[in-house]
């Protein structure tokens, strides 16, 4: 079966090479027809009538088996394209879901950072307020320390007198 299909493809390619240029790249085959305008006129002319513009050559008959092979290959290509599109669709959905997850995580992180910064600022203001209160409460300490030194000096003099 496979050898028959390859033989039909080879026969079709040989016939096409007589009528134009055949280019092959891997599994892809391209055909560029010679005298395309004349061929279009020939295809529109009724059977049995010579085409306008002269020329007595006719288009060679196409093998029905080759046409069936082309139809089968076109079906395979269509199925492969459908599967490729499904895979691309699934991949895009996965990437989109991942992107949404990253954006949500980033948003949550930014919100959390904002809240943490707000709490830190409030704590810093509270600390500054407490330090100011402590500073105000400690203002009498230098005067008290001076009084204690004076008292200590007086005690030392009294001790010196008592001895």
Can you lay out the helices and strands and say which pair or pack?
Blueprint: H1 2-19, E1 20-25, E2 28-33, H2 36-44, H3 64-138, H4 140-162
Description:
The protein has a domain at 89-162. It has a two-stranded antiparallel ribbon. The protein has four helices and two strands, in the order αββααα. The longest helix has 75 residues, at 64-138. A hairpin with a 2-residue loop joins strand 1 and strand 2. The chain has 163 residues and is mainly alpha-helical. One of its GO terms (biological process) is lysosome localization. Residues 60-159 form the BLOC-1-related complex subunit 6 C-terminal helix domain.
End-to-end C-alpha gap: 134 Å
Classify the helix fraction into a percent range.
Answer: over 70%
Radius of gyration from the alpha-carbon trace, in angstroms: 49 Å
Shape: rod-shaped
* Tally of helical segments: 4
Share of β-strand residues = 5-15%
Q: Which regions contain 5 or more consecutive residues with pLDDT less than 50?
A: none
Widest sheet: strand ordering: 1-2
Mean pLDDT value:
83
Structural class: mainly alpha
Order of helices and strands: HEEHHH
Key terms for this structure?
single chain; mainly alpha; two-stranded antiparallel ribbon; BORCS6; BORCS6_C; BORC6 protein
């Amino acid at each position: 079966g496979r050898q028959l299909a390859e033989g039909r493809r080879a026969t079709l390619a040989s016939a096409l090479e007589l009528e134009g240029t055949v280019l092959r790249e891997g599994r892809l085959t391209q055909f560029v027809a010679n005298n395309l305008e004349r061929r279009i006129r020939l295809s529109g002319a009724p059977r049995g009538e010579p085409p306008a513009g002269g020329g007595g050559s006719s288009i060679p008959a196409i093998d029905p088996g080759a046409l069936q092979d082309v139809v089968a290959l076109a079906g395979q290509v269509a199925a492969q394209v459908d599967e490729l599109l499904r895979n691309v669709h699934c991949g895009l959905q996965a990437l989109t879901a991942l992107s949404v997850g990253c954006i949500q995580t980033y948003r949550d992180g930014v919100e959390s950072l904002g809240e943490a910064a707000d709490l830190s600022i409030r704590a810093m203001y509270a600390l500054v307020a407490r330090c100011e209160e402590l500073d105000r409460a400690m203002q009498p300490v230098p005067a008290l320390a001076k009084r204690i030194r004076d008292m200590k000096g007086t005690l030392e003099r009294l001790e010196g007198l008592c001895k």
